[in-house]
Amino acid sequence: MFLALVLLFSLVNAAQAVTLTPSERGWLDRHGPLRVGVVLQAPLAQLDTRTHRYYGADVEMMGLLAAQLHTSLTWQTYPDLAALTAAADAGQVDLAPGMVQTPASLKRWLFSDPYLRIPSKLVGREEQGTSVELDQLPLYERIAVRSPSAVAKFLAGNYPVLQREPVASERAALQQLLADKVDYAVVDEAQLNLLMREPEFARLVVVGETGYTRLLRIATRQNEPELARLVDRVLLAIPGRQLNQLYERWVLPVYPHLTDTLTFWRRLALLLCLLTLAAVGAWLWNVRQRHFVEQRLALVRQDLERREAVEAALRLTQFSVDLSTVGILWVNWDSRVRYANQAALSMLGYPADQLVGQLLSRIEPNLDMDRWMALWSKVRSEKLASFETSCLRGDGRWLPVDASLSFLRFRDSEYLVVFLTDVTEKRQAHAALEESEARLQGIAANVPGLVFRLERSAANQSAQLAFLSEASQALVGYEAASLLAEPDGLQTLVHPEDLPVYLSSRETALASDANWHWQGRILTRDGGLRWGDLKAKARRFDDGRTVWDGILWDMTVNKENELRLAESRAMLRDLSAHLESVREEEKARIAREVHDELGQVLTVLKLEVSMCELSYAKLDVGLAERLESMKKLIAQTFSIVRDVATALRPPILDAGIGSAIEWQARRFESRTQIPCLVEVPERPIQLSDAKAIGLFRVLQEALTNVMRHAEAHTVELRLTVAEQQLQLEIADDGKGFDVNPGRPRSSYGLIGIRERLSMFGGRLDIHSAPGEGCTLVVTVPLDEGEGERSW
Fold it and tell me: Domain Histidine kinase spans what residues (predicted)?
């Protein structure tokens, strides 16, 4: 009995386990360990400093939650609720057990249903000796209660006439009660569990209830509704018995009640003694009467049980035979029917009075007496015979049946028992199956592809090719029968270079009973090469059998077009890279010519103006003013020449990409008045000239987009080198935009950045959302010899 109860208990617990959906399991796997934040408070959550392990009611509750979700927890402690709330706002905490739901906290947390209910008790001195109701207390009675607190607000709202004495803690409330400064104290039951264990408070007892209960819940962050739904599901799955055990183990205190007094126990003991004596007397009288009745009924019961068993067996046998779905006939040696059950009468369309007593040849005209006697002798010697025949119904129609004959000897008589089974539906299903197979063969033969079926009878067995359409002759030059005879089936058609990918996709589909998709080259019988696209849908049946129905399409024309298109795109990309390189070289040449040629001319012009000023300025005041004006124009022209040369090819690039990024950031700040924070490696970065120019142009385009569209307040630039990759991150706090890769965008700036990066194998990642700014991450692979220089 005990083992049965244990087994039942295990089955109930197993039935309450939480089953996670694939999306929920995937969310937990992506999230990793759940971060739990607690404020240490005995006995709900405490830390053993010696073993560095957490324990308490909230800790055990989170252990049950983690076990149901099959995940791990990381714990973080905080000095108070404000620090815990700040950590949750910063995204450092996922869960917070032991939280109390308030209107203010609902703006920051999602709360579960309560898992612990902690009432507040009214505590008094043992000598007071009465049970107390709050609404019946005299006005002069004083009650100590921790303030500010929720229970203090509760008492103020529901019992405004009570004289409340505010104290700093529950311990202080009990100490005030011991010092006779108050008449009663209101203490949380969880704290009472700890305080009543101390000898100082041994004389105190619980004298009443306050009516206030603190409901402990599990709080999750507002931006993680998936986790909140998982917590609610786990709490519903945890049996109430476990929650009661959690309450009794950590919260329910072992403290003396008012009923623990000596007088109470004496009266209770006397009452129990009287009840025990009365129960013993009643039991003795009951035993005597029951023994007397049992003796008189024993023989009658045994006789009735024997009769009922025999009658029940006879009724069950007759009922089973009469209502069997199989037709049953008893036929004696002269071929006359002696008994027919209801199924046989309904199957043959005869009433009982027209069939019983008739020759068997009435329903089977071909069974004459000679054949019947031969059949009688055969069944009598071999005990069983089966065959398929047709019976003539009472309405003249023929009924196909499966007949089984068995020999029976009952008392002094011998019979053949004929079992009839209607096979009309069986024959119709067989005919429908043949028609369906013929239809399938016709459809498969006209499909412009190779139709096949792969079957596996059990999970631990190999899959075999069960069907192949005749289109194989036109597709690969092999007849379907020859491919079915091959042990490897379709594998023999795969090009040797594509065989590993084919086998890998096949094994993946077979291992997980998943759909199968493969594209690759196949060889025809005459050695020709074609491209094939194989798609098969998996179906699993209840008997463990799995089949893959699929088609191998000829995609040679499409694949050749695709390859030519890819080659054309590669040529266009190479041409674009060449044109970009030529353009940058031309910009550099023009920048050098502008800087050198125009610079020399302007320098000479400035010297000539200065010589004229020294020679003739004092002779004519008007001439001095004109010469000064010419010097200013020459200085402006110098500035324009420098700006044009810098725009064509900034000389700062010769100092390294890090210096160029800092220089461009300062120019951006001066033009837009937007602060730009820059972080680059301390050591210079060695890059090829093409990559340095390309990366610098990407930065210029990105900052131009920020200036035109972002409406940002600050911009951050970060350049890092790791694992032979150079990464440039450009982040702004502007208005952002909706990143949707599936929708074509009209931002030619981003398109140009991607194309420029593709020239040297780089990539662009965009992270943005409306109202949350935008971050561009540019990643460029480094060749051998590139990277940070050593000092």
Answer: 589-784
pLDDT band, very low/low/confident/very high, at 36 (cuts 50, 70, 90)? very high
Q: Can you say whether the dihedral through the CA atoms of 298, 302, 307, 312 is positive or negative?
A: positive
* Dihedral sign computed on CA atoms, order 369, 371, 377, 382: negative
Name the band, by pLDDT with cuts 50, 70 and 90, for residue 319: low
Burial annotation 532-566 (CB, 10 A radius, 16+ → b, else e): bbbbbebeeeeeeebbbbbbbbbbbeebeeeeeee
Q: Answer yes or no: CATH 3.30.565.10 is held by domain 651-788.
A: yes
Nearest to 753 by CA among 773, 774, 733, 771: 774
The H-or-E segment that residue 645 falls in is helix 621-648
Partners of 213 in the β-ladder: 119
Q: Alpha helix locations (H) across 513-594?
A: 556-593
Q: What confidence category does residue 440 fall into, taking pLDDT thresholds of 50, 70 and 90?
A: low
Bridging pattern class, strands 116-125 and 53-55: unpaired
Instruction: Confirm if 76 and 92 have CB atoms less than 8 A apart.
Output: yes
- Select 323-422's CATH number: 3.40.50.2000, 1.10.3120.10, 2.170.190.11, 3.30.450.20: 3.30.450.20
CA 698/CA 198 separation, integer angstroms: 72
pLDDT tens for 497-514 read 888 888 888 888 888 888
**Which amino acid is present at 547?**
V
The residues with which 297 forms a beta bridge, in sequence order, are none
Token pair, residue 222, equals 């507002």
Strand pairing of 73-77 and 34-38? parallel
pLDDT band at 265 (very low <50, low <70, confident <90, very high): low
Q: Which residues of 415-438 are buried (b: 16+ CB within 10 A; e: fewer)?
A: bbebbbbbbeeeeeeeeeeeeeee
Indicate the CATH number for domain 21-259.
Answer: 3.40.190.10
How do residues 109-121 score in pLDDT, each as one tens digit?
888 888 888 888 8
Instruction: Give dist(CA 28, CA 34) in Å, integer.
Output: 9
Q: How far apart are CA 436 and CA 499, in angstroms?
A: 35
CA angle (555 as vertex; 551, 561 as ends), nearest 5: 160
pTM beyond 0.85: the answer is no
Q: Is the dihedral of CA 319, 324, 329, 330 positive or negative?
A: negative
pLDDT for res 148: 87
- Per-residue DSSP letters for 329-382? EEE-TTSBEEEE-HHHHHHHT--HHHHTTSBGGGT-TT--HHHHHHHHHHHHHH
| pLDDT score recorded for residue 167 | 92
Cis preceding-peptide flag for 500 (omega within 30 of 0): no
Residue (of 726, 714, 695) closest to 774 by Cα position: 714
- Strand stretches in 126-189, DSSP E: 142-146, 163-167, 184-188
Residue 694 to residue 700: CA distance in whole angstroms: 10
Largest CA distance in the chain: 164
Does 3.50.50.60 match the CATH number of domain 428-554? no
Mapped onto helix, strand or coil, the DSSP state of residue 599 is helix
Determine the Cα–Cα distance for residues 334 and 260; give it in Å rounded to an integer: 93
Tokens coding 590:
């023009």
Average per-residue pLDDT in the chain? 78
Contact of 44 with 190, CB cutoff 8 Å: yes
Quote the percentage of the chain above a pLDDT of 70. Answer: 79
